[in-house]
């Protein structure tokens, strides 16, 4: 059929494209089913205060417990969820589940723990976002000050005025806002002053460079920048004692990373809380 229409006709390539489109449709409906069948789970990674050495919060990270594929990492489906818009209902599930879990741990006497939830750009442009978050806070009873929303720098590339307005409305709910993967995205420092941000999360790539000379200067600079702007600063992806030591000596507020714990299922996280697992406090 393609031959009849001529060699240069784009029809010639149609089969391959159809396959790609079909694959996407397949994944989209698989994601939709996953939500209906309750196949998503949240793992939690502790965040530790470097002064006290104690767990002060946790980041909720989604996984897909696929009946055949096993545990699927978010890197393999968040992008597609984003493109198809399914991130909106999936993200709503994440927010509700994470807030309910944090409240349950508080009620069980594990102290005031903060819960950090990732928000994708697509969710950010969802008109009902504000109402949805307010409703989750009300229904779960989690104090708004215990919720931290993680945003990425890409968010600030679109309509800046609109973004500033929405961030102020989010802040008015009483929650905290953090910039995830700081230093890797659209790096304009102007938004740091304009946007009501509370926390900078130093991207893992800068932390893994600690001990490699020059690169550590970036980490020190981000810590100084954060503190000058009265922001809290968290180092992501801390894997070694040397990195931890460096961050502590340079005044970083909090850490998160495999050195202390990877993201773990709720039952294991709770075990950590019960055992009072912590870091050696700073020797001040
Ligand atoms: P992120 O928000 O920057 O999360 C941190 C990622 O780094 C997590 O990967 C975590 O497992 C990993 N990590 C933590 N400590 C270490 C470490 O010491 N070493 C190394 N090598 N990695 C570490 P994960 O769970 O695979 O998530 C990947 C990304 O997927 C997240 O990056 C986030 O952007 C996205 N994501 C995860 N859950 C959600 C969600 O519920 N909603 C949205 N919109 N995005 C999510
Ligand atoms: Mg994050
Ligand atoms: Mg990150
Ligand atoms: Mg990331």
TrEMBL record:
Domain annotation EAL: ranges: 24-277
Cellular compartment(s): Membrane
Domain of life from the UniProt record: Bacteria
Record's protein name: EAL domain-containing protein
Origin species: Duganella aceris
Range of the intact protein held here: 664 to 947 of 947
